[in-house]
Amino acid sequence: MTVIGELGEKIDEFNRIALERILNSDPVLVDIQTAGEWLPDMHDHLVLHAGPPISWDRMPGSTRGAVIGALLYEGMARTTKDAERLAASGEIEFRPNHRGGGVGGMTGIITRSTPLYIIENRPYNVRAYAGVLTDRLIFGGYDCQTLDAVRWTNTVFAPALKAALKHLGGVNIKRIQAEALHMNDEMHNRSNAATALFSKAVAPALVEAVGDRQVVAEILRFWNQTPSYFTFIGMGACKATMLAAADIPYSSIVTVMARNGVEFGVQVSGLGDRWFTGEAAVIDGPTFPGYSRSDAERDIGDSCITETAGIGAFVMAGAPAILRLVGGTVEEAHRHTAEMYEITVGENPHFTIPALDFQPGPVGIDIRKVIETGIVPVIDTAMTHRSAGVGEMIGAGMVTPPMKPFQDALRAFFETYAG
Q: Which of 126, 72, 86, 368 is nearest to 236 (CA)?
């Protein structure tokens, strides 16, 4: 047998280990803590963001807006101009969420006082976080309405939910995801059913653990009015799952996909925390009334950790309702899912697709198969306005990531393991 043949067998062997860890993962939402409490090296001048590393001078408008809003909320700046000067001064450290074992939606901006969902993957004693984030802030807003929403999230919502989780002893997220996939969710841009299932599970504990009836009513109303609420929790569960499959020598499975509005980046299990990047894609999809595609930022956010873990657009065939948001046809949704089986190493019996006769969904992106087939992972995502301060979702659509990160990763993989 050739050296390459022997290496291929070894890669397959360790990919089976990584796949087993993905399939056996069991993420549970156990707590809420602030970033300052949870991250040991979190400091006042550290700002976490989505995607691969990026500096202030390269950040797109929406991310700059979110940074400005966060610095204003933290009291580190009194005016927008002060916040911009501080961000550009070199006194602020910018760092990807993934470096700390977590994720953030859209711009993903997290500062010291930001609450975090703490997700425990119990079979592997792994914990991940996802930001308890305010939509207007992470879409780049920094006006008074944005800061008031952040204040309510941080000082009212998060403490109340923390008390409810303590009362419950945690909420099993994998079970909610599995059930919601049978209710027309794909768990990236559509999590309507998952939000309903989560609020149903937590509401009794919220009533019992929180004495202020007005707070309970506000939270129940918020869940009722925010069908996408569960998305961030699901992202944290997917991150906890993929952390269990990370850092396995000889494994060619992708453990991270993320975007910062300028670059799309991947990490591979057998290559640790090295980033491989290419230009972030333009999102192809419909915009809301009053906006056009020229208003939209390039692809941004940590949310495609869902596709990395085998849900999101990977299971679009089972969630045709998402097409009303991202565009396309049912036939295209089926094609997207079918193609993902060609670039993955296995199927997930816990996440099945009713429209495909309950076939297990594809999971475990293999960089070798991406290059061999020429098929890149499919992603569906939201659009944010490219200008700082707008703070709104302006549409949604489909994304075709660049091939370059996968090519570079495969080259580095063989340089590492085959010399």
A: 126
CB neighbours (10 Å) of residue 155? 12
Cα→Cα distances 203→35, 215, 351, Å: 25, 12, 25
Kindly state the greatest CA–CA separation across the chain: 71
Which stretch of DSSP H or E encloses residue 16? helix 3-24
Structure tokens at 302: 């940590």
Q: Which helix (H) or strand (E) holds 234?
A: helix 231-244
Q: Please answer whether residues 322 and 410 qualify as being in contact, where contact means their C-beta atoms are separated by less than 8 angstroms.
A: no
Tokens standing for 89?
């001064």
Which helix (H) or strand (E) covers residue 193, if one does?
helix 192-209
State the Cα–Cα distance between residues 102 and 290, nearest whole angstrom: 34
The token pair that represents 146 in the structure block? 């944005």
Contact between 286 and 396 (Cβ < 8 Å): yes
Residues of the chain with pLDDT under 50: 1
Query: What's the pLDDT score for residue 4?
Result: 65
Report the relative pairing of strands 126-131 and 254-260 from DSSP bridges. unpaired
